[in-house]
Amino acid sequence: MTGLVIRLAPYERVLLNGAVIENGDRRASLSIRTPNANVLRLRDAIHPEQANTPVKRTCYLVQLVLAGDSTPADMHQPLIRAIEQLSQVFTDADSRAQLNQATAHVIGGEHYQALKALRQLIPREARIFSSKMA
């Protein structure tokens, strides 16, 4: 993750390599220079009970790595398998591009970027579920 820039709102919290960092009363930017640093915005965190859809469960798996609760090696196969299962449902070109990016980032050990790509699918998944309910 060399060169990752995180922009923080006032009092926003971020988990960086297991340490919770809280911003002050002004907007700020953090430039993360350490390669493969584990970064998770706490506002983006998915709680276990919220991981109730396939995309959210996959995001949660990535989040476990970023939070330090699982190792990248332990999550590699489950993540690749979960992304492959998502590709069976998300067949449009844009969703496929997001899934391909997520896969590449997982393989490259860039879990923050993988989470970022996967989160793009949450609204699409919500639309799919809402159309099935109607």
Summarize the structure in words.
The protein has five helices and five strands; from the N terminus they run E-E-E-E-E-H-H-H-H-H. Helix 1 (54-66) runs antiparallel to helix 2 (72-87) and helix 1 (54-66) packs antiparallel against helix 4. It folds into two domains: 4-41, no CATH class; 48-133. The chain is of the alpha+beta class and 134 residues long. The strands form two sheets. Strands 3-2-5 form a three-stranded antiparallel beta sheet, with no helix packed on it. It has helices spanning 54-66, 72-87, 93-107, 111-119, 122-133; strands spanning 4-8, 13-16, 19-22, 28-32, 39-41. The model has no long low-confidence stretch (mean pLDDT 91).
Structural descriptors:
5 helices; three-stranded antiparallel β-sheet; two-stranded antiparallel sheet; alpha+beta; 134 residues
Set down the secondary structure blueprint.
Elements: E1 4-8, E2 13-16, E3 19-22, E4 28-32, E5 39-41, H1 54-66, H2 72-87, H3 93-107, H4 111-119, H5 122-133
Antiparallel strand pairs: 1-4, 2-3, 2-5
Helix pairs in contact: 1-2, 1-4, 2-3, 3-4
